[in-house]
Amino acid sequence: MYKSLEYFLGHPQSSRNIMFTLLPAVSLVLALCSISVSATPLGRSTCTPNAQGAAVSIVSSADGTLKWGDANPTPTVGDVLSALSFDGDSPNFHVAQSGQFPTSFVINDVNNHALFVDSSTAGSLTFNTTSVDFDQGFQLFDITCQSCGSDTTPGQSAGSSCTVSPLGPFVNACVRIVKPDVSGLPLIVGSCEGSELQLFDIVF
User: Fold this and answer.
1) How would you classify the pairing of strands 188-191 and 200-203?
2) Distance, C-alpha 53 to centroid of its chain
């Protein structure tokens, strides 16, 4: 038979019995909630850069003295891109959204707008002319950064610690430098490993 609240208020011993009976159940619920919260991983926020039409350098996050570049002073079709010395000199690329969905980017030479970075040569990046469909994705890149900025002052970054991933037929591919402190080695395309060598800053 159910007892009224007045009954329990008038019988303290009964109230204590109920509290001790409920305590294990309440503790179990709190423990489960704690496990649920602690088991939820903390997500890392990311962003896509906006260079606002300005020229940029693509600089290694692992070694700020290396940037994407062409050893040929007059870039042309077929040139292989390398990690070259960077000392704050003039930016050499445009990085712009392609206008396609989902969001992707095209990267072209700052002086010769007809030369686009192309990933169709296995394992490397070269300059190539563009086509209407950007060579079936070989000239499209996903760029995801850990932080982004809008200050176009020289030396500031549109994106920091960014992965640059060729699209087209590639799955889980990232551009990387071969090793820090060495200028002139070709940029390579390989599996994304979370390595600092696969991170770049997009610098105004």
Assistant:
1) unpaired
2) 20
